[in-house]
Amino acid sequence: MADVKQFKLPDVGEGLTEADIVSWKVKPGDVVTVNQVIVEIETAKSLVELPSPFDGIVTDLLVSEGQSVDVGTPIIAVDVSGEAASGGPEPHGAVSAGSTPAETAPGAQAAGVGLAEVNDPAAGTQATEDLVPSVPEDETAREPGIEGSPAPKIERQAVLVGYGVKLGTTTRRARKGGRAGGGSGAGRAPQEPVTPPAASGNGASGSVDRPLAKPPVRKLAKDLGVDLAALTGSGPEGTITRADVQAAAETPAAMSVPMVPAGGEERIPIRGVRKHTALAVSSSAFTAPHVTEFLQIDVTETMSAVQRLRELPEFEGMRPSPLLLVAKALMLAVARHPMINSSWDEQAQEIVVKHYVNLGIAAATGRGLLVPNIKDAHTLSLPGLARAISELAATARDGKTPPADLARGTITITNVGVFGVDTGTPILTPGETAILALGQVKQAPWVHEGELAVRQVTTLALSFDHRIVDGDLGSAVLRDIGAMLTDPLRMLAWG
Predict the structure, then answer these.
(1) Is the residue at 443 inside a domain?
(2) 149: domain range?
(3) d(CA 54, CA 148)
(4) Distance between CA atoms of 225 and 258, rounded to whole angstroms?
(5) Same domain, yes or no, for 325 and 221?
(6) Which of 189, 248, 401, 493 could form a disulfide bond with 254, CB atoms 3.0-4.6 angstroms apart?
(7) Distance in angstroms (rounded) separating the CA atoms of residues 482 and 465
(8) Catalytic member of 92, 276, 448, 466
(9) What is the pLDDT of residue 262?
């Protein structure tokens, strides 16, 4: 007898209310096992792969690729009956049919925010590990994010990393339209599962309102002017493939989507990182009173030091940039002026001074603006800091930054110089007191040792929360950073 359970979209980060389904890794009829990746989702902060919470056979994909759904909305149905689970060998560590994973510890959840730019390339990897706690025999566990009856009594259960919807901890505005998980029915199973376009055929109310295609295919179709709704997909479950789009592009009749004419309008949905960034910067701009100060400095000696660092064996495989020494100078300035590395606790009416540095490096990515941070950056050696910056940038650029790396930042650097501008007035990352902007380094006339000379010059901008930082403190921090970048030996003296 079939025992079908529905897996609900979990909260993979603190405060998550919705996510976009990017791509399914399984299809109806596939056999899945515990911890097998079944879907990739895009939250407001990062791309996340969700593993299966149980063994069984996929019966339905309840949400199509490209759709936005609320936390708690059923996204996949799996037959977990003994007959279904017996279709293949049970892997090591898998939960047997009918058993359920326990909820993750609240500490496993994380969240973050995003803002601006970085230019240090390198490779980075992220890792997680499963925890297997003991469960008393007389307790009955219910699967987090899974719709169905309570689980039988068990002694040990596999815990899936990142699972566990935090009931009652999030609120959201009502959503327009009839998309899955929208409106007041968010978090409840739909009366009819969403059916892929290729399977619906009759335009019933349970079908999705746009063709089944992955985001890269949709972008290709837009670039080529192909109407996806007019195509019949040749991929699994009627998915439209790149080959389908390219073939249609060669047929004039298929070019039914006109390019935006001059003077016309284009509407882009506000979602994902863009939506989160808009909320974050708006909240920051209208909560913390910003003050920005500027300082133009001669960084000729810093640029020479960067070239010498690249020749050292300790930096082999890395390419140190001026950002490395800027980061080091900022952390030394924090040590000299701890109040700049603090936050405002409105509820407690306290200023929280943090005697550690989780250094945020603003990163421009294909998905939007993010600010991942390096935990305990103040404890790293210079080569260690260079490696951490490179790995952080590469991970953000690949869209693989985990929510934990976006949370708990204390102070931020944004490198606007990579875009060829002198400086800017950066907005504070919410929860932080200061952000330092680094402008482009360029040759300019400068008075050096009493003589006019051509030197390498840049402009620094420091924005700070004026509730915490007065003008004299902000000026002292900026002045110290400028002094260390003008003469890098000061970093040794002050370190």
Answers:
(1) yes
(2) 1-103+141-207
(3) 12
(4) 6
(5) no
(6) 248
(7) 20
(8) 466
(9) 67
- For residue 466, indicate whether it is catalytic: yes
Per-residue pLDDT band at 159 (split at 50, 70, 90):
very low
pLDDT in tens, 36-78: 999 988 876 677 889 999 899 999 999 998 888 888 999 999 9
Given this model, what pLDDT does residue 44 score?
Answer: 66
Q: What is the pLDDT of residue 332?
A: 98
> Cα angle vertex 330, ends 324, 335, to 5°?
130
Separation between Cα atoms, residue 154 and residue 146, nearest integer Å: 17
Supply 348's token pair: 């407690």
DSSP strands (E only) in 111-152: 146-147
For the stretch 175-204, pLDDT in tens is 444 444 443 343 444 444 444 444 433 333
Work out the burial of residue 241: count CB atoms within 10 Å of its CB; fewer than 13 is exposed, 13-18 middle, 19 or more buried: middle
Yes or no: say if 48 and 21 are a contact pair by the CB < 8 Å rule.
no
Residues 70, 182 contacting (CB under 8 angstroms): yes
Three-state secondary-structure class, residue 386: helix
Beta bridge partners of 350: 345
pLDDT at 180: 40
Smallest Cα–Cα separation from 65: which of 205, 183, 186, 236?
236
Cβ atoms of 432 and 426 closer than 8 Å: no
User: Are the beta carbons of 409 and 358 closer than 8 angstroms?
Assistant: yes
Residue closest to 277 by CA, chosen among 463, 117, 83, 75: 117
Q: Where are the beta strands (DSSP E) in 174-318?
A: 290-298
Q: Which residues contact 207 (CB under 8 A, 6 or more apart)?
A: 194, 195, 196, 197, 200
pLDDT at residue 164 greater than cutoff 90:
no
What is the total residue count of the chain? Answer: 495
List the beta bridge partners of residue 361.
413
Q: Do 248 and 202 share a structural domain?
A: no
Banded pLDDT at 369 (limits 50, 70, 90): confident
My answer on whether 355 and 443 are in the same domain is yes
Question: Would 26 be classed as within a structural domain?
Answer: yes
Residues 437 and 490 in one domain: yes
Write out pLDDT tens, residues 436-451: 999 999 999 999 999 9
Burial of 364 (0-12, 13-18, 19+ CB in 10 A): buried
